[in-house]
Write a structure and sequence with these properties.
two-stranded parallel sheet; Rossmann fold; binds nicotinamide-adenine-dinucleotide; 2 domains; UDP-galactose 4-epimerase, domain 1
């Protein structure tokens, strides 16, 4: 069984490659290393069933031989990244998704789209169910990501409805864990980095906005449950354990054994006020529920960052 993982050298993609390799799948990891790095999968290089191919999904894409599964994860994902690469993000969400779907259809493979809770925008419904259509500003700065993913969902659905493609859409909520980049701009790596270095922990706005954070092992379990079945989704995968950003900052500070002060800074435009998945569909259709409590997942992540930042500071 062969799988193609686009964005396979990124944070989530690298775990998917790893888990598929462990299950004896032959894995082709396709990435242009825009926001990911071969370092994330270097432990897989040399395994006979793992291959890494440097390629831009928005260009010509060809994979010889049979493919049973295409996991489409290529896309900048952190706000800092997609604001730095706005056109690239729109291109990979649109043209890249078209190419990945074309590949899946040509091979008769199952196709899994990595969508996002950001399709719900700044939600007017809480928690967010898959039936909610979202509240996205189409010309706001975040639209390059949100609208690219909404378009990708539409394209995936059209391939399913009009071309008979076997597709699944997963709406991933904030996921964290080892291999996130310390400077990727997302809240958890930023807070951990600041806490470990004794720098002020910068919380945006007044810190009352909420997020629901899911440990990477749980997220990957949910994604694979979708990949190995035939459920079309969309399905929310995330941990409904919601907390304010101020509380998250305090928890990370405590777990890191840090005495960093908490500093409130400007909130970015169109930043969602609340975020919590309704995971009923995932439980009913995939038998999935998150298992790792925030304290446990954050502890593991902090230890990884401690080692990672130690390496960085010696360079
Ligand atoms: P990431 O930035 O670590 O990984 C994305 C990967 O895609 C990178 O390795 C990057 O180099 C690659 N890529 C980007 N453009 C490409 C192109 N044109 N051709 C080939 N490769 C390209 O981000 P991540 O957190 O691992 O996110 C992976 C996917 O999951 C994304 O599609 C993202 O939207 C989705 N997602 C992630 C989260 C999360 O919390 N991590 C939440 C919701 C959705």
């Amino acid at each position: 069984m062969r799988a193609v993982v686009t964005g396979g050298a990124g944070f989530l993609g690298s775990y998917l490659c790893e888990r598929l390799v462990e299950r004896d799948w032959e894995v082709i990891c396709m990435d242009n290393f825009l926001t990911g790095s071969p370092r994330n999968v270097e432990h897989l290089v040399g395994r006979p069933n793992f291959k890494i191919v440097e390629c831009d999904l928005t260009g010509f894409v060809h994979v010889p031989g049979e493919v049973a599964l295409v996991m489409h994860f290529a896309s900048a994902a952190s706000p800092a990244d997609y604001l730095r690469y706005p056109i690239e993000t729109l291109r990979v969400g649109s043209i890249g998704t078209l190419h990945a779907l074309g590949l899946a259809r040509e091979k008769g493979a199952r196709f899994v789209l990595a969508s996002t809770s950001e399709v719900y925008g700044d939600p007017l419904e809480h928690p967010q169910k898959e039936t909610y259509w979202g509240n996205v500003n189409p010309v706001g700065p975040r639209s390059v990501y949100d609208e690219a993913k909404r378009f990708a969902e539409s394209l995936t659905t059209a391939y399913r409805e009009s071309r008979g493609a076997d597709t699944g859409i997963v709406r991933i909520f904030n996921t964290y864990g080892p291999r996130m980049r310390p400077f990727d701009g997302r809240a958890i790596p930023t807070f951990i980095r600041q806490a470990l270095r004794g720098e002020p922990i910068t919380v945006t706005g007044d810190g009352t906005q909420t997020r629901s954070i899911c440990y990477v092992d749980d997220t990957v379990d949910g994604i694979l449950a979708l990949a190995f079945g035939d459920f079309p989704g969309p399905v929310n995968i995330g941990n409904p354990d919601e907390m304010t950003m101020a509380d998250l900052a305090k928890l990370i500070r405590e777990l890191a054994g840090s005495d960093s002060p908490i500093e409130f800074v400007d909130r970015p435009a169109d930043d969602p006020r609340v975020r919590r998945p309704d995971t009923t569909v995932a439980a009913e259709h995939l038998g999935w529920r998150p298992r790792v409590p925030a304290e446990e997942g954050l502890r593991r992540t902090i230890e990884w960052f401690r080692a990672e930042l130690g390496v960085l500071s010696r360079r």
